[in-house]
C-alpha cells in the first residue's frame, strides 16, 4: 500500500511536470519562430522599399547621364534592363538577380563618370550620385539583416528538437537574398575595385 | 540573438539600481538639510519631490537636456545628405528606427548617442568628425552609436548625464547662495540661518560629487564600450573602419576643447578630456572608457 501510494504520488507529479515542460518548449519555440518570421518579412519589405527607391531614380539618372556619356550606351541599357527585370521579378532569386546587375552597373557607371568632368560638375548628377550611393549602402545593410534573420530562422527550423515544432506548425525554410556583389561589401565605396569581382 | 536580449535586460536592471542609489542619496541629502532647518521630515519630502521632478525630466526630456548641454542642433536630410544616408543605412543594419541627427559645430571630431529607447534616440556628431573621417570611418563611428542605441545603453547614459548635470548645477547654486546670500542678507536677522543651510548644502554636495563621478563610471562602463565596438564591427562587417576612426579621433582631441564638459565626457565615443590627460596613467584607471589603444587593438584582432 505504502510503496504503491508513493509510486502513484511520483507519477502524479512527474507526468504533469514533463507535460508542462514540453508545452513550455512548444510555446517558446513557436513564438520564436513567429518572431523570426516577422523580422524576416519586415527585413524583406525593407529591401523591397529600398530597391523601389533606387529603381525610381534610374530613369532620372539615365536622362541626366545620356547627354554626357556618348560611349557608355551599353552600360545605360544594362541599368534600364535591370529595372525592367526587377519590375517583372516575383521570386527572391529574380529580385536578387536584378539587384545584383543594377549594383554592379551603377558601380561601374560611377567609376566611369570620373572620365567626364562636365558630368561630375552637374548638380543634378552630384545629387543623384550621393542618393544612389547612399541607397546602395542601405540595400546592402538590408540584405545583410534579412540574410542573418533567415540564417537563424532556417537553423531553428532544421535543428533538433525545434524542427519538430516547426514541422508541427508547417514553418518553411526560406531562401537567402544572395548577390555576388556582396562579396565586396566590406568596402562600401564607389570604387573601381568593385569591378574586379566578376 | 539571445545574448543580446540578456544584455538589454542587464542594462535595464542597472538603470533601476542606478535610480535606486540616486534616490537613496537624495533622501540622505534631504534629511541632512532638514536637520539643519529643524524639520528633517520636510527636508525628506522636499528631496523626494525634487527627485521625482528630476527623474521625469531626465526620462522624458533627457534627450533635449543632453543636446542643449552639448550645443547640438538637429539637421535634416536636405542639409546633410551624406550623414543622413550613413545613419539610415546603419539603422537598417541594426533593424532599429531612424534616429534624429544632431550636429555640434566644433572642429574637434567626436560623436555620441542619447535617448530613452531606440524609438526616441538621437545621434550627434561634430562638424569635425564629418570633415576629417572618410566614409568607412564615419560608418564605423555611426555603427558604434547605433550599437549603443540597439543595446539600450543610451537610456542609462542619458539619465546619468542629466543626473550628473543636476549635481553640477546644484553645486553652482549652492556656491551662489553662500556668496550672494551671505552678502545680501548680512543685515537681516535671518541671514545667519540661511548661510548655515547654504554651507550645509555645499558640504553635502562637496562630499557627493566624487560619489556621483563613481556612479557615472558604473553607468557608462568600459565593458559596454567594447561590446558596442564589437557590435559596430558586426553591423558594418569592416572593423578597420572604426579602428582607424578611433585612432584619428583620439589623436585630434585637444585640451579644453569646446565639447569638453564633465557631465558629458563619458557619453562621447572618445572622451574629449583625453587630450588633457593622455600622459597621466591615473586618467586611464579612472576613465569611463577603456583606453583607445586597447579598443583599436581588439578591433584589429577581429
Entry keywords:
A: de novo design (two linked rop proteins), B: 302 residues, mainly alpha, four-stranded mixed sheet
Distance between the termini of chain B: 19 Å
Structurally, how many domains make up the residues of chain B? 1
| Binned strand content of chain B | 5-15%
Unreliable spans of chain A are: 184-198
Strand order in the sheet with the most strands of chain B: 1-2-4-3
Helicity of chain A, as a percent range: over 70%
Number of strands of chain A: 0
Strand and helix order of chain B: HHEHEEEHHHHHHHHH
Spatial shape of chain B: elongated
The main pleated sheet of chain B reads as: 4 strands, mixed
Rounded radius of gyration of chain A (Å): 26 Å
Largest interface, with counts of residues having CB < 8 Å to the other chain, equals:
A-B, 24 and 18 residues
For the record, what is the CATH homologous superfamily label of chain A?
A: LemA-like domain
Q: Kindly report the average pLDDT value of chain A.
A: 85
Helix content of chain B: over 70%
What does the average pLDDT of chain B come to?
77
Using the 3D structure, state the CATH architecture of chain A.
Up-down Bundle
Concise overview:
Chain A is an all-alpha fold. Chain A contains six helices and no strands.
Description of the structure:
The complex is a heterodimer of chains A (198) and B (302). Chain A is built from six helices and no strands. Chain A is 76% helix and 0% strand. In chain A, 30% of the residues are buried. Chain B has helices at residues 2-37, 40-70, 81-94, 127-132, 135-150, 153-184, 191-219, 222-236, 239-252, 274-277, 281-286, 292-300; strands at 72-74, 100-104, 111-114, 122-126. In chain B, strand 3 and strand 4 form a beta hairpin. Chain B has a four-stranded mixed sheet, sandwiched between helices. Classes of the chains: A mainly alpha (198), B mainly alpha (302). The A-B interface holds A 39, 42-43, 46, 50, 127, 130-131, 133-135, 137-138, 140-142, 144-145, 152, 185-189 and B 1, 81-82, 84-86, 88-90, 92-93, 95, 135-136, 139, 235, 237-238.
Amino acid at each position: 500500500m505504502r510503496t504503491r501510494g508513493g509510486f502513484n504520488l511520483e507519477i502524479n507529479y512527474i507526468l504533469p511536470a514533463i507535460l508542462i515542460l514540453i508545452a513550455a518548449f512548444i510555446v517558446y519555440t513557436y513564438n520564436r519562430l513567429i518572431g523570426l518570421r516577422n523580422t524576416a518579412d519586415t527585413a524583406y519589405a525593407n529591401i523591397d522599399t529600398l530597391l523601389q527607391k533606387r529603381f525610381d531614380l534610374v530613369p532620372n539618372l539615365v536622362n541626366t547621364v545620356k547627354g554626357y556619356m556618348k560611349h557608355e550606351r551599353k552600360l545605360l541599357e544594362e541599368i534600364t534592363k535591370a529595372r525592367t527585370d526587377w519590375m517583372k521579378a516575383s521570386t527572391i532569386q529574380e529580385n536578387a538577380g536584378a539587384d545584383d546587375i543594377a549594383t554592379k552597373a551603377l558601380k561601374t557607371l560611377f567609376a566611369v563618370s570620373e572620365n567626364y568632368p562636365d558630368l561630375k560638375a552637374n548638380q543634378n548628377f552630384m545629387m543623384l550620385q550621393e542618393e544612389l550611393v547612399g541607397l546602395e549602402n542601405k540595400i546592402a545593410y538590408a540584405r545583410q539583416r534579412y540574410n542573418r534573420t533567415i540564417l537563424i530562422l532556417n537553423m531553428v527550423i532544421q535543428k533538433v528538437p525545434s524542427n519538430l515544432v516547426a514541422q508541427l506548425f508547417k514553418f518553411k525554410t526560406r531562401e537567402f537574398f544572395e548577390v555576388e556583389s556582396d562579396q565586396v561589401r566590406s568596402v562600401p565605396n564607389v570604387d573601381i575595385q568593385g569591378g574586379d569581382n566578376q | 540573438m539571445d545574448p543580446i536580449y540578456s544584455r538589454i535586460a542587464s542594462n535595464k536592471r542597472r538603470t533601476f539600481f542606478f535610480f535606486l542609489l540616486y534616490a537613496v542619496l537624495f533622501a540622505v541629502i534631504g534629511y541632512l538639510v532638514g536637520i539643519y532647518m529643524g524639520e528633517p521630515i520636510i527636508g525628506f519630502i522636499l528631496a523626494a519631490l525634487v527627485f521625482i521632478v528630476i527623474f521625469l525630466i531626465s526620462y522624458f526630456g533627457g534627450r533635449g537636456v543632453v543636446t542643449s548641454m552639448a550645443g547640438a542642433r538637429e539637421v535634416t536630410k536636405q542639409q546633410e545628405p551624406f550623414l543622413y544616408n550613413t545613419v539610415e543605412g546603419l539603422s537598417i543594419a541594426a533593424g532599429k528606427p531612424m534616429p534624429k541627427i544632431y550636429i555640434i559645430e566644433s572642429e574637434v571630431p567626436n560623436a555620441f548617442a542619447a535617448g530613452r529607447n531606440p524609438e526616441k534616440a538621437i545621434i550627434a556628431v561634430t562638424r569635425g568628425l564629418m570633415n576629417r573621417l572618410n566614409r568607412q570611418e564615419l560608418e564605423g563611428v555611426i555603427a558604434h552609436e547605433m550599437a549603443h542605441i540597439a543595446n539600450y545603453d543610451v537610456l542609462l547614459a542619458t539619465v546619468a548625464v542629466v543626473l550628473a548635470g543636476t549635481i553640477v548645477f546644484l553645486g553652482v547654486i549652492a556656491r551662489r547662495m553662500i556668496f550672494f546670500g551671505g552678502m545680501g542678507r548680512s543685515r537681516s536677522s535671518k541671514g545667519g540661518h540661511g548661510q548655515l543651510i547654504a554651507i550645509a548644502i555645499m558640504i553635502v554636495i562637496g562630499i557627493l560629487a566624487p560619489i556621483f563621478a563613481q556612479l557615472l563610471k558604473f553607468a557608462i562602463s568600459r565593458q559596454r564600450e567594447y561590446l558596442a565596438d564589437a557590435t559596430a564591427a558586426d553591423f558594418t562587417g569592416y572593423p578597420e573602419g572604426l579602428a582607424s576612426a578611433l585612432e584619428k579621433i583620439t589623436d585630434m582631441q585637444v585640451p579644453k576643447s569646446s565639447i569638453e564638459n564633465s557631465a558629458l565626457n563619458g557619453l562621447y565615443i572618445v572622451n574629449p578630456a583625453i587630450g588633457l590627460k593622455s600622459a597621466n596613467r591615473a586618467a586611464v584607471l579612472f576613465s569611463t572608457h577603456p583606453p583607445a589603444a586597447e579598443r583599436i587593438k581588439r578591433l584589429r584582432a577581429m
